[in-house]
Amino acid sequence: MSTFDKRAHEWDKKDVRVDGAKIIADAITRKFTLTPEMEVIDFGVGTGLLGFEIAKKVKQVYGVDTSEGMLSKLQEKNTQECTIIPYHQDILKEPLNQKFDALISSMTLHHIQDLEAFFKTIHNNLKDGGFIAIADLEKEDGTFHSDNTGVHHFGFDKQELCDIVARSGFNNITFETINVIQKPHKDFNIFLLGATKE
Ligand SMILES: C[S@@+](CC[C@H](N)C(=O)[O-])C[C@H]1O[C@@H](n2cnc3c(N)ncnc32)[C@H](O)[C@@H]1O
């Protein structure tokens, strides 16, 4: 059982997560045009905090995650009006044979060890003209999480991350601070990385 399987039942109980996902969804909506024809993948969808916000505005959101527990919580939240289709797999080991108009992601990138492999994989899964919108922590000192199990990056440096994204074939790369998470000992910036596939 993964750490996320264990935490799934209480995931949505923290306001900082629910409110944080809304802030990310608003930033994505401001930056990119979402239309009712679009098919979007939420990478590391978890319980769907970001995915359901975006699902209201597009044709279909698919949610990929390696945690069965998180996906089972997500499925409890599916309704006739708004459904996320779950994919339980590691797309780095087992790539999806499907192309999307956009990839969104919230607070998952720091769990991915091989960033080059990740951005190349998702580039293949994006339609021409599609975009990525990925939110995560800016560079931090390793004190954001109380337990760093499964954390492969203590946030991200803007230039280093943008260079990897450019090398993976993306264009129009942007990186902006969209939120600050306040913890008793420190503030942590959240960025939104945007890029397109031409
Ligand atoms: C910090 S949680 C964020 C969940 C959700 N996006 C949110 O903002 O509430 C990270 C999620 O990424 C998932 N995850 C970690 N590594 C993954 C991988 N290689 N592929 C897909 N999902 C992964 C975890 O299972 C977990 O649900």
Notes on the protein architecture:
The protein is an alpha/beta fold and 198 residues long. The chain has a single domain (3-196), classed as Rossmann fold, CATH 3.40.50. The chain contains six helices and seven strands, in the order H-H-E-H-E-H-E-E-H-E-H-E-E. It has a seven-stranded mixed beta sheet with strand order 3-2-1-4-5-7-6. Bound molecules: S-adenosylmethionine. S-adenosylmethionine binds at residues 4, 17, 21, 44-46, 49-50, 64-67, 70, 90, 106-108, 111-112.
List segments where confidence is low: pLDDT < 50 over at least 5 consecutive residues.
none
Superfamily (CATH H level) name: Vaccinia Virus protein VP39
Mean pLDDT: 97
- Estimated structural class: alpha/beta
Instruction: Assign the CATH topology.
Output: Rossmann fold
The profile of the biggest β sheet is:
7 strands, mixed
Amount of beta strand: 25-35%
How many helices in DSSP terms?
Answer: 6
Characteristic terms for this protein:
alpha/beta; globular; seven-stranded mixed beta sheet; 7 strands; Rossmann fold; binds S-adenosylmethionine; 29% helix; 198 residues; 6 helices
Task: Give the topology.
Elements: H1 3-7, H2 15-31, E1 39-43, H3 51-55, E2 60-65, H4 68-77, E3 84-88, E4 100-106, H5 115-124, E5 126-137, H6 158-167, E6 171-183, E7 186-196
Parallel strand pairs: 1-2, 1-4, 2-3, 4-5
Antiparallel strand pairs: 5-7, 6-7
The structure holds S-adenosylmethionine.
In short:
The chain is of the alpha/beta class.
